[in-house]
Each structure stands twice: as C-alpha cells, then as structure tokens.
Amino acid sequence: MKSCSLSRYLPLIPRSWFRCLFPLSLVLGLTGVRAGDDLFNERIRPVLVEFCFDCHDDDTQKGGVNLARFKTDRSLHQEVRLWENALRQVEEKVMPPRNKAQPDADQFHQLVDLLGQVLANPDPEWLPRDPGLKVVHRLSRTEYNNTVQDLFGIAIRPADSFPPDGGGGGGFDNNADTLFVPPILMERYLAAAEEILEAVPRRSLILEEPVWYTPESWTARRNIERFLRKALRRPASPEDLARFLALFRKARSDGASFEDSFKVVCKAVLVSPRFLFRVEMDRPGDGPQRLDDFELASRLSYFLWSTMPDETLLESAASGRLATPGEWDRQVTRMLDHPKARALGENFTGQWLGTRNLAQKANPNLNRFPQYTVELRKAMVSEPVEMFSGLIRENASLLQLLDADHTYVNGLLAEFYGLSPVPGEAFQKVSLPDRRRGGVVGMAAVLTQTSYPLRTSPVLRGKWILEEILGTPPPPPPPLVATLPPDDRVRDGQTLRQRLEEHRKKENCAACHSRLDPMGFALENFDAIGRWRDEIDGKRVDASGELPGGQVVDGPEALKGALMDRRQLFLRHITEKMLSYALGRGLEHYDMPVVKEIAGRVEEDGYPVRTLILEVSRSLPFQYRRPASQ
Prior knowledge:
Elements: H1 6-9, H2 21-28, H3 39-51, H4 73-76, H5 80-91, H6 105-120, E1 137-138, H7 141-152, H8 183-199, H9 216-231, H10 238-253, H11 258-270, H12 273-276, E2 277-278, E3 289-290, H13 293-304, H14 311-319, H15 325-337, H16 342-353, H17 358-361, H18 374-394, E4 406-409, H19 411-417, E5 428-431, H20 444-449, H21 458-469, H22 496-503, H23 507-521, E6 535-536, E7 539-540, E8 544-546, E9 552-554, H24 556-565, H25 567-583, H26 592-604, H27 609-618, H28 620-623, E10 624-625
Antiparallel strand pairs: 1-2, 3-10, 4-5, 6-7, 8-9
Helix pairs in contact: 2-6, 3-6, 5-6, 8-11, 9-10, 9-11, 10-11, 13-14, 15-27, 16-18, 21-23, 25-26, 25-27, 26-27
C-alpha cells in the first residue's frame, strides 16, 4: 500500500468514532503506518487469531464463516461484503459473543479502525475500476407488459401468462443472470404476439397512410423504420430494415392488404431478439466501454419506468446530447416527475421490502384474523409503494423510510390502523398521531409477512430488519433447532417471550438471538396482521430488549431511534439495493467502492431520494460495461 499517515485517514473515520481518536493514535503511533505495510496480515490478523479463530477457522467455520483463509489486504476485497458484515458485528459488540474472551479497548479500536481503513482503501493496482459485465438482458414480465402497452397504446398484460421470472442477485426479478428462456416461453411469445395484434384491429397501426402519388414501397419503408425505432429502442440497422421490408413484400405478394402486411411485420418484431432482449454491443478496444446514447436511454428508462424509452428520450439519444451531464440530469429529473416513475416505487420497493408478493409470503389464519381480507391485503401492499413514490415526488429524505410522521392510506387501511376516516379507495398522505407506525417497520405488510399464521415471530421480524434495513444478515440457524409453539397463548404459565428466552440460553443460539430478538420484540405490540395490541392472552405486552452493545429499546418508537442511530448502515444497504436494481445484476466486490462513493454523496446532500437515484444513474457501472471478451 502507498504511504499513509494518520492525517490522511481522519476524513474516512465516521463522526461517531471521533471519541476513539485518542486510543487510535496510540495504536497507530505518532508516525502513522509504515509505507508498504500489509495492515491485515500484520496488524489485524493477530487480533482475529486471538478472539475470532476459535469459532471461525479452517476447522470450525461456525455459521459457515472461515476467517482464517484470508491472508492479505487484497484477499479481503475478494469478499468485501463478508468483511463489512464482520466489521459491523464487531462495532456493535455482537462479536465476539459475550461468553467468549473480549478484546480490551486498544485491541477493539485496532480491529475496528484498521479493518475499516483497509476496506475503505482498496489499492487500484489490484482492484481496478470495473463496471462489470451483464449478460444479454431479457425483458422481465413486468417490463414486457409495460413495453407492449406503451408501444401500441393498449391496456393489455399478455406476459401474466409467462413462466415466473427468477429473483437473482439483489433479489430483483429484473436480474439478467436469472432471466432464462425456457422452451415454453418461446411458445408464449408467439401466442402473446397474436393476442396483442388481435387487440388492435379496432384502429390502424399505420403511422403514415399510402397515397396514390407516393410509391407504396417508400411508404412501407417509412412505416417500418418508424415502428422499428420505437420497438427496437434505437434506429434499425440496414440489415434489420431490409429483412422486415422483405417480409412485408412477401405478405403483399401473397395477397395481404397493406395494413395486414404491416401487421405481419409487427408480429415478427414482437418475437425478434432485438425486441425481447436489451442488447448492448461490444466495441473495439480494451477496458471499460461507455454505452452509446441509445443503450443508455434504454438503461435509464427501464430503471426509472420499467418500460421502453419515450420519444423525448429517444430524440435526446439521437441528437448525441443524452450523455452530457446537463442533459442527463435534466432527463432524469423529467422522468422522475412523470407518472411512469411510479413503476420504480412498485418494482423496487415491493421487491426490496418483500411486500410485493404478500399473498404468497403470508397466510394468516382467517379464523383467528377474519379482518385479513383480499381488499385489506391489497391496501397493505400499496402502502410502502405509495410511501416511496411520495418520497420521489417530494424529493424527501430516505430516512423517512426509518421514521416518519406520516404514511399513505386509503379508507380501509385508515380504519384498520385506527386513524381518522379517509374517504374511498384512493390513497392519500395522512399525518400520524404518534410514532408507532411511521416508517416501514410499522407497516402492516411488513409485520404480516414476518409473522406465522397464528402468531407473531420476533425472530423473523428481527431477521428481516437485519437483512432488509441494515444489510447485516445473521448466519443460518444450526441444524435441528427446536421449534416453538404455533401460537402465542400462555402455556404452563409461560409466555412466548419466556419460552424464547429459554431457547436463547443455549450456546449455539445465543449469539444470533442477541441480535434478532430485541429488535423483533420491540415490535411485539403489533399482532400477526399488524394491528396494535396492549395485551397477549391477558398479559401485558413486553416490548423491551437490550441490543448488543447495551442499547435498550422498548417498543417501536425506541426501535426506530436505534435504526436512526444506524443510518449509515441503512444508507449503505439501500444504495446497494438501488444500484443492483438499476444494473439488473447482482453486485460484486469491485462494485463496493462505487457503493461507498454514492452513499457518501447522498449523506453529504442530506439523504434526498433523488440524489440516490441520480448518483446511481451517473455511476461508472451504470454508464459503462466490461466487454464480454475481457
């Protein structure tokens, strides 16, 4: 590594660590770190050997984690997420577990500060800027439906009959690596093309009618060129144009009318790879390649709208201006102001939080919870979408997803929450009388999907918060873990909480449950479908707990305060999620410096949601690609 002094690293240290600067200076020494030091091998690994390798070495690998296989600074960056998670657990004093030997103050700061330093400063010689490689990207079912609707101006959803899309890296169904093409899908594409064209004989598809004084071939060419530009999301190549013109002429020679011949062309386009896939071409040269303006237009449109570029975006690409900074920012702002930006709220938020498929994820017992109707479930699913869409419209702070003084409800959900009446089915922004609900952890869709049919699950709720809010998932549970009763009735004088506390006394369970349970129990006033309650089976709800590190939480308000204290973890995680969604691929270790850069700019700007979206769209991996040949 290059020469580095203490002063160089001060700007990299989070504000909350400044109380540690005195012991940090003792660890590093007044002269700083020597040039050429391998910090991990020389200064960090000895502490890990003493306090971590007992459980996480080549032989033990508790929780599937083996830290002993890492030998150098460089090796850490091959699995940077694992080490970021390990760092967070050490910071919050989750690890080492309380029943194990603990590092003293100097050793703790040595591990936290130096490990953070290594992770924040990859050497560009062995971690060059890499925009990553994305395979040819098939349109997802959502993208196909939206594209067809915009291309033909009809309300139709033929892709609903397609096989389900996979959810790959990042957990989104637009991940190119999992958008396979099984044989049955090709059959569905043909059937969908028929269905689409049957839905539009009621109006002409012809963009420019033939007239007697104009050669028909000229008019056909004009119509096909204009249609291909929209359907293929870029001007047609001479080869594509010649192929589809030949198809038109063949239909005409077989006796089809001008319009029916054009429909033959439309059907062929709908099953062509150039329509079904978002293709980005390699160009001569080595190293990262900037996408051309039409490729960028498609990336941006499918990111923000989940559909094809509109005419304004295509015109900007055709002019060669789209990639210029001022024009790019103007287009992003225009598109976020457009009603189509709701697609970002629906497809990003619903999949990130896991609430989009609530019907498949949750199955409350209807005898126990008869209020859980189909209409209520739909309203629950809409709440986080409306919340995120509202943040985009207002360019509000992302932190409102953690704690807010308002939410979005319709009449049914307002009644369910016990709020002032709201007329009708339309959602509207309402102020909340207290801080129980504000933020995603108080939303019924989240609370329902993290419950069992007959009772809540503090473990599932705590796990959900660690995974989806903080991005610090716990390891999988050990095999043959004893299960708890299916409901929360008091049994043999013990509440569910008391039974869970007995369970967490086991050595194999204590470490994870010390992180999971306090967060989950803080939400215990919400029942299995998200209603507020003060008692469970005649006993007052105990929503208290102590987080690792000693912070006490009691109820949802205190939990949200604890999450706000961890806002940097939340910001880092939602940045990873947004970048993965925008790219249509899972993130790799070489993406982590970009994630940190974006998160840093969002924090400096005060956490506005549009800054996150804009910085993601400006980033190296969004605007460039690694050639497939490299």
